[in-house]
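Q: what sequence does this backbone want?
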């Protein structure tokens, strides 16, 4: 099965950058490392501002509008405020692990961007196993979360950390299986190769894989309706309750940086990355990233938080079987239907997705009985 559709060939890029741009290995490394840090930090600041403006619109109230024009400086003011707060450490906690945890949580998020192609040739390292690198690095964050909960010597922190690890392990399986379908269609583990294979965006050729990946990714980064780690009514604030000052700022930065990472990965795997007509490639990339972010926020402000038993049941009883079925169907299409028209594949897969979702919604109820019963 090929992803090339007759008559649909969007402009790939205005000019592909050389592999060692702007010249030499070390200069390339320095420029892109600094560029990635700046990109993540600026994106996080914009995301925080947009989130507050969007929630104001969704809840029919004003968002930030005092600090700077349209409240644009509010994230900067919040950053200054949080960084100047007193930095406390629990008296009976493990000081070294407590100090290391925010670093372990934050570092992998920046490392994920090392293999993301912002446009043709514009990436730090074009690994031929780029997607495996992303999966492996992304899983390290849970170690830092558990370190934070355990080192705090607080039962609420520890329970929040244990919830996070359980949730990540549960949703990691359907997430990886959904990515496997994309790899089969693209025939490449490189993120650049996956983007170049998308003459038709994979969100059309692999709609069920997109849905599974998107839901599992929300659960992995603890975004609503899966934000049980920070269930205020149950755990006060989850694993980060004992943190303050710069350490708390690092944990909060991680949460929004993870949203940026998921938006970028979804754009790369399913939306054609930087590919698109007329506009510059990097601008297309940003448009798609912010569109995914808007979808994440729309879900956050619309859906209610699930219970922990519902979250776990949804992963194992709903997403996992659907991911396995999608992988089986995709494998059969690649082997037995390699020359089929992408548009025909798109229609078939959308119909299969609709049928499976309706069928599973009737066979499986994640809620079960209420806790009171």
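A:
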């Amino acid at each position: 099965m090929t992803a090339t559709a007759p008559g649909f060939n969007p402009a790939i890029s205005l000019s592909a950058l050389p592999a060692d741009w702007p010249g030499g290995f070390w200069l390339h490394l320095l420029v892109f490392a600094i560029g990635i840090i700046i990109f993540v930090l600026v994106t996080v600041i914009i995301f925080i501002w947009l989130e507050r403006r969007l929630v104001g619109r969704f809840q029919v109230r004003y968002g930030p509008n005092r600090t700077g024009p349209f409240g644009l400086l509010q994230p900067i003011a919040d950053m200054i405020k949080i960084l100047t707060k007193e930095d406390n450490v629990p008296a009976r906690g493990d000081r070294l692990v407590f100090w290391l945890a925010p670093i372990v949580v934050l570092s992998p998020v920046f490392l994920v961007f090392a293999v993301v192609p912002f446009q043709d040739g514009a990436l730090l390292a074009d690994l031929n196993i780029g997607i495996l690198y992303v999966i492996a690095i992304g899983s390290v964050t849970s170690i830092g979360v558990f370190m934070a909960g355990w080192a705090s010597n607080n039962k609420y922190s520890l329970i929040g950390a244990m919830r996070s690890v359980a949730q990540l392990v549960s949703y990691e399986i359907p997430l990886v299986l959904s990515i496997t379908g994309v790899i089969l269609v693209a025939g490449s583990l490189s993120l650049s190769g996956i983007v170049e294979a998308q003459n038709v965006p994979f969100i059309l050729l692999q709609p069920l894989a997109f849905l599974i990946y998107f839901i599992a990714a929300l659960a992995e980064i603890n975004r609503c309706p899966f934000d049980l780690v920070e269930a205020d009514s149950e755990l006060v604030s989850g694993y980060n309750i004992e943190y303050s000052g710069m350490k708390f700022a690092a944990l909060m930065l991680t949460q929004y940086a993870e949203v940026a990472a998921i938006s970028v990965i979804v754009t790369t795997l399913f939306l054609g990355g930087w590919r698109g007509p007329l506009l510059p490639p990097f601008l297309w990339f940003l448009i798609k990233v912010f569109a995914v972010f808007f979808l994440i926020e729309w879900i956050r402000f619309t859906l209610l938080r699930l219970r922990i038993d519902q979250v776990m049941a949804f992963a194992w009883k709903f997403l996992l079987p659907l991911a396995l079925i999608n992988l089986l169907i995709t494998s059969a299409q690649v082997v037995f239907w390699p020359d089929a028209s992408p548009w025909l594949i798109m229609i078939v897969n959308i119909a299969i997705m609709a049928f499976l979702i309706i069928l599973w919604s009737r066979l499986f109820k994640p809620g079960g009985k209420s806790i009171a019963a």
